[in-house]
């Protein structure tokens, strides 16, 4: 491996224009494809096979209108005033009418009129079906008077709201709180929200804003489904700026520091551009490119840093020419880059076995980004070094290197390594205790999808959520859609059975409003809208969903039917449960595959096991800190958010895969230096200290860079990106500084030379990948001696 990469690096160095032009052409092709196909992304995150998705798919087939996405608009009165003045009621009525006139929005009044015409032309049977359809659509649009009557009939308290009435006529889909301080308009689209054209939300908001004309003082707040917000913002640039400063300090010149940045940006441009160019054919969520940018910048800078730093050290410490040093750096550090990248790719591609489409797409785009980054580091980077030539090290740096060589054993890295070796047992115990305490909150980790309840106070999503909760109850933020089907497939649901189901549902302690929505044409399916008393992410709502699905429940018996539950809230509950179920399988797969890679790289039994155990400590502590901050709300002011909430349901899987791969990067670069020292004759603690001294500076710089890049996403507009950015930044901080740079040398010194023990039969079986470049160095020495003899 090292010999091949040495030749590749030398070729790229000698023919820089060939490689640069090739990559520019690739970027141009990606840009052309992007221009032709355009950018397509979606916020849809569904998991095929879950109960809620099965119900939604069936609804889409049987009753397409009932399966469309729902949205809401909140109208608020100025402080201390009311909405039920003639001018404000007329303005709200006008706004509602404007929304119903838009394409892709269901107008219940028009459907009812069409149903009446169909009934007059087609007889009693058509009348029943049309009336059923009309009732369904009117209820779906948000009529709540039926629910209020049912609550009274069931002996409950009447809700503190009612229908919005203008001139004695109810406005379909609109309700008003009893104190008239807030009104709620709920409506339905003909398609799922993720399938709507991008212009539809803007058109709806333009129509709704008519309520503010004429200085009515009415406030208009869209629901989260109508609020568009970029996944990433401008704060990510801070992380890149910090990375640039660290690169300059580490590499000592602007030119050398600029190469890793240029390579990383080039890689992100090709990877993200390519992903977007294919988004017309492969559905991609909004969070996918943001995640790829995050990973691409981090690994792109780090991988290039390892190679450039190795080249500079060979020039400064060994007196090699820039050409020879670049070739050897690609052959040695490039081998470590290759296997480190391969570990990250394996960890990401492990998500494919889970079988969740949006996660698979995320994983493939991120893995492709890492793959492109590795290729650029091994080809474009040495080509750029060829352009720079001997200027990679200034005269001042060469002079400073001569002076520092005399004090090599007095540096901080040397003292730190010797200290960890001396106090190894105290350090091992201390690290385990500290990370164990940090991991405690992970036991209380609650998974879900961030909602308006945990959005920042200054966002429309949070303001809409709070206004709805105040005027109508928290459950109105998470309507459930129930589908009842007879247990006998040949039978039909009767109106009496539907009525019995509605009455039984209303008796549940956590049910606020139940509204029958009618039947399909064959009568084999009845639709019911149910509004819980608790919020979408509350445990009580999850328990309610489970109660509704129980085949032996009183609800199922009342209708003699099976009950399916769907809707955004139910889908999120099922998604979280599914991801929690497959998480252990995923961890097992990536650990086994990565252990094999590490076994090949280090030719040791103990080192891969130690690396994996250290990662387990890191990931548990990471989840503990993330839970404490984003779920419990600790230090929320510091991290720029207002309210804690459930953690992103796919965050543990995504972060585990990414963090495992990146943690093994540091393991490879740090421990491969220790093995290099061992292979070249040093033994015991001496090999640990010497290897640590060689690699610690660049590993420290790489870790600071990666933490800075990820931390830049902590203040992104999207709550999901914030959580992932924090978890990755915290994870790298813990794994690089506490585990790899502190715990690893302590444990390595405990085992000494036994850390490199490998059974003879396994040693013969495993191929020698020569990651340390030992064979390469021997070959180059032999060639040098041969040339010297010929010269004599």
From TrEMBL:
Primary site of residence: membrane
Compartmental location: Cell membrane
Region feature (Disordered): 128-157
Domain SSD positions: 266-387
InterPro entries named in the record: MMPL_dom, Mycobact_MmpL, SSD
UniProt key word Membrane: yes
Membrane-spanning residues: 20-39, 237-270, 290-308, 329-356, 362-388, 425-443, 583-602, 614-633, 653-673, 694-715, 721-739
Residues in the signal sequence: none
One Gene Ontology cellular component: plasma membrane
Alphabetical keyword list: Cell membrane, Membrane, Transmembrane, Transmembrane helix
Gene3D superfamilies: Multidrug efflux transporter AcrB transmembrane domain
Annotated Pfam families: MMPL
Name of the protein: RND superfamily putative drug exporter
Taxon lineage: Bacteria, Bacillati, Bacillota, Bacilli, Bacillales
């Amino acid at each position: 491996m090292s010999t091949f990469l040495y030749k590749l690096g030398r070729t790229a160095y000698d023919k820089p224009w060939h490689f640069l032009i090739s990559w520019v052409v690739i970027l141009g092709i990606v840009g052309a494809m992007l221009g032709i196909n355009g950018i397509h992304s979606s916020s849809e995150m569904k998991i095929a096979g879950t109960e809620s998705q099965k119900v939604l798919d069936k609804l889409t087939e049987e009753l397409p209108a009932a399966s469309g996405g729902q949205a809401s608009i909140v109208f608020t009165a100025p402080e201390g005033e009311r909405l039920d003045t003639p001018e404000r009621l007329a303005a709200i009525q006008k706004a509602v009418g404007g929304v119903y006139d838009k394409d892709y929005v269901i107008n219940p009044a028009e459907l009812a009129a069409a149903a009446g015409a169909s009934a007059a032309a087609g007889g009693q049977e058509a009348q029943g079906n049309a009336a059923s359809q009309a009732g369904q659509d009117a209820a779906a649009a948000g009529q709540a008077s039926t629910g209020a009557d049912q609550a009274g009939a069931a002996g409950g308290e009447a809700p503190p709201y009612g229908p919005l009435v203008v001139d004695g006529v109810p406005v379909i889909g609109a309700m008003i709180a009893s104190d008239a301080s807030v009104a709620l308009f709920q409506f339905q689209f003909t398609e799922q929200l993720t399938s709507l054209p991008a212009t539809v939300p803007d058109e709806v908001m333009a129509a709704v804003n008519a309520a503010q004309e004429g200085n009515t003082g009415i406030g208009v707040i869209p629901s989260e489904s109508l609020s568009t917000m970029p996944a990433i913002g401008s704060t990510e640039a801070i992380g890149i700026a910090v990375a640039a400063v660290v690169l300059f300090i580490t590499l000592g010149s602007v030119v050398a520091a600029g190469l890793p940045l240029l390579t990383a940006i080039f890689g992100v441009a090709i990877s993200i551009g390519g992903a977007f160019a294919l988004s017309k054919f492969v559905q991609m969520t909004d969070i996918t490119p943001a995640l790829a940018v995050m990973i691409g910048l981090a690994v792109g800078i780090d991988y290039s840093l390892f190679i450039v730093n190795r080249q500079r050290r060979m020039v400064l410490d060994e007196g090699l020419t820039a050409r020879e040093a670049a070739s050897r750096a690609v052959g040695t550090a490039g081998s470590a880059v290759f296997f480190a990248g391969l570990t990250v790719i394996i960890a990401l591609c492990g998500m494919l076995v889970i079988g969740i489409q949006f996660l698979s797409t995320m994983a493939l785009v991120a893995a492709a980004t890492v793959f492109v980054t590795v290729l650029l580091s091994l080809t474009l980077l040495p080509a750029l070094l060829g352009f720079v030539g001997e200027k990679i090290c200034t005269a001042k740096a060469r002079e400073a290197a001569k002076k520092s060589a005399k004090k090599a054993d007095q540096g901080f890295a040397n003292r730190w390594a010797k200290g960890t070796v001396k106090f190894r047992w105290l350090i091992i115990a201390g690290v385990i205790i500290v990370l164990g305490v940090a991991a405690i909150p992970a036991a209380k980790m609650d998974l879900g999808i961030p909602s308006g309840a945990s959005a920042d106070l200054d966002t429309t999503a949070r303001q809409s959520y709070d206004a709805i909760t105040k005027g109508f109850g928290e459950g109105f933020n998470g309507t459930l859609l129930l589908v009842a089907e007879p247990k006998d497939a040949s039978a039909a649901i009767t109106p009496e059975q539907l009525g019995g189901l509605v009455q039984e549902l209303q008796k549940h302690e956590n049910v606020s409003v139940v509204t029958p929505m009618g039947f399909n044409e064959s009568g084999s399916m009845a639709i019911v809208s149910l509004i819980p008393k608790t919020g979408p992410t509350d445990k009580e709502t999850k328990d309610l969903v489970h109660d509704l699905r129980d085949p032996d429940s009183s609800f199922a018996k009342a209708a003699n039917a099976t009950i399916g539950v769907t809707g955004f809230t139910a889908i999120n509950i099922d998604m979280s449960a599914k991801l929690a179920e497959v998480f252990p399988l995923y961890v097992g797969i990536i650990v086994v595959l990565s252990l094999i890679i590490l076994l090949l790289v280090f030719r040791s039994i103990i080192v891969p096991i130690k690396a994996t155990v250290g990662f387990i400590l890191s990931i548990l502590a990471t989840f503990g800190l993330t839970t404490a901050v984003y779920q419990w709300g600790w230090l929320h002011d510091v991290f720029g958010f207002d309210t804690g909430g459930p953690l992103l349901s796919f965050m543990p899987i995504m972060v585990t895969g990414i963090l495992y791969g990146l943690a093994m990067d540091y393991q490879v670069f740090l421990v491969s230096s220790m093995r290099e020292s061992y292979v070249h004759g040093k033994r015991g603690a001496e090999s640990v200290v010497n290897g640590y001294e060689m690699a610690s500076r660049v590993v420290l710089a790489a870790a600071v860079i990666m933490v800075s890049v990820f931390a830049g996403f902590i203040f992104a507009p999207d709550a999901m990106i914030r959580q992932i950015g924090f978890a990755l930044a915290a994870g790298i901080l813990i794994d690089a500084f506490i585990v790899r740079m502190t715990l690893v040398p302590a444990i390595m010194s405990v085992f000494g030379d036994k850390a490199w023990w490998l059974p003879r039969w396994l040693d013969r079986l495993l191929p020698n990948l020569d990651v340390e470049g030992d064979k390469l160095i021997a070959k180059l020495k032999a060639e040098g001696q041969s040339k010297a003899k010929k010269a004599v």
